[in-house]
From TrEMBL:
The chain crosses the membrane at residues 12-31. PANTHER family: UPF0127 PROTEIN MJ1496 (PTHR37953). It comes from Candidatus Berkelbacteria bacterium CG10_big_fil_rev_8_21_14_0_10_43_14. This is DUF192 domain-containing protein. It comes from the Bacteria. Keywords: Membrane, Transmembrane, Transmembrane helix.
Length: 158
């Protein structure tokens, strides 16, 4: 069987495309493995961090809906007892209050559909809050007392 120049070029193109795809996947996995993460019931949730007062006030307001197993982690230097609200929230979320490495409570925060803002209060003091897509708490069986682990998360200093 004789290989024509056209066939050879096609094979080279296919190999080059495969190499580019492999490189993109390696870079993507390298990046994903370095994202801050929360691990609950053996499931890794990739997070963005809210550590400054401005980031905490903004939260997920005005953002696009979260993808499964992603969220925003609010970090506090000390224990706090602050409510959360749904101002400018375009989609419902689950809110998970955490003290150190243990869930102390959960709640649902609905999308804001009227001019009124829904406010929810924690069941007790906490030092972390994880906001995740609505249904995550039920999907992962998260409840008061559930253990929480962290990867690549630096505690706030302010």
């Amino acid at each position: 069987m004789k290989i024509t120049n056209k066939t050879l070029r096609l094979m080279q193109w296919i190999v080059s495309l495969g190499a580019m795809i492999a490189l993109v996947l390696v870079v993507r996995n390298f990046y994903i493995q370095r994202l801050p993460s929360v691990i609950i019931n053996y499931v890794t949730i990739r997070t963005t961090l809210a550590t400054t007062p401005e980031e905490k006030k903004q939260g997920l307001s005005g953002t696009q809906p979260l993808k499964p197993h992603t969220g925003m982690l609010f970090l506090y230097q000390d224990k706090v007892f602050e409510p959360f609200w749904n101002r400018d929230m375009n989609y419902p979320i689950d809110v998970i209050w955490i003290l150190d490495n243990q869930v102390v409570g959960t709640a649902v925060l609905d999308a804001q559909t009227t001019d009124q803002t829904q406010t929810i209060y924690p069941p007790q003091f906490y030092n972390k809050v994880l906001e995740v897509p609505r249904g995550t708490v039920d999907e992962l069986g998260i409840k008061q007392g559930t253990g929480v682990d962290y990867a690549r998360i630096v505690a706030p200093t302010t």
